Amino acid sequence: MKDKLVIIGAGEFQNPLILKAKEMGLETHVFAWQSGDVGERSADYFYPVSIIEKEKILEICKDINPRGVTSIGSDLATITVNYVARNLGLVCNPPENDCCSTNKYLMREAMKRAGARTPMFIKLDAQDSKDIPDEMKYPVIVKPTDRSGSRAVSKVFNYKELLTAVEAAAAESFEKRAICESIIEGEEFSCECISYKGEHHILAFTKKYTTGAPHYIETGHIEPALISKEILEDVKKEVFICLDALHVTYGASHSEFKIDSDGKARIIEVGARMGGDCIGSDLVWISTGYDFMRMVIDIACGKEPILKREEKDDIAFIRFIFNDYDQQMIEEFLKSEPVTCIRKEVKAIGKTPVKDSSTRFGYYIMKSNERVCVEKLFNKRSIEH
Fold first, then answer.
1. Mean of the per-residue pLDDT values of the chain
2. Which domains does the chain possess?
3. Which residues, given as ranges, of the chain have pLDDT below 70?
4. Are the C-beta atoms of 31 and 7 separated by less than 8 Å?
């Protein structure tokens, strides 16, 4: 009889996890709101239950009797993963992790208490009419306290813009709150880690590209990122301080950070899950040879992860589609440069502007041995970005 794995979420970024689990000989039981997602079809068993209905999922899982419960790339899903796994006596992060790793305000508080470098921050709701403290200074970043995917993120320059941005962020927030932070300047990166029994292992560093102000929607990512050894030591120290502060004990984590003008790492936020945007599911494997998804599944099933890697020297990258121009640019790039397309997912491209990560029109995952040509693609910006 096959061991059973429960997976929370059925979207396109969850599907590689479903396929990996099946490849490993596990029987997959997938929970998600029924909406025609690819994971509904690739799962061995699909249950049309919203990922936030954790009590209902737990009751069904008592009959399934899974070996593990997991998810990738979704902050919201991690709450249900921990709740269900904890109540079934399976491997998961401790209760202290639940809120502080999915609520950006509580996350900032935990990081500050642990001594991590944190910007000034305050919590606001749509009914607040107060201005930021004098010592904070404009411009500032406003975002929902408990959402991801660049939803309702804004750079604001004055009090009038603040009121509008807080209202928009609170509307997207589950708890109807926004966090307002001083801006962290510098190039943006992420650190992909796996943790087991509280010991953290860095697998890869990723360079992040966005549309910039005001909404900072990701346009793509490159692995490995070019970061000097001296700076990497500081990054590692700061990331591990934050992972410990957030009680990340088991499984994947995705720590976003910037490197300031002094060469110091400043953490933006940490997800107690694999990086979305195909970072964990695809880019890590292509660029490093680490089987990140297998590690996540093994840990969920109570096994120590295998940290062995295949030797690879490819540069892995993903570029997202915002409009017709983007797709044409990438297709021309593939014809003219020493690049291999690993996979592409492109929906019908509409005329409505992209407002966050969930409304992008698709992506291309590629690899190359030549960094110069890869960076050439990211130096080309869509006419609408």
1. 93
2. 4-92 (3.40.50.20), 120-182 (3.30.1490.20), 187-378 (3.30.470.20)
3. 381-385
4. yes
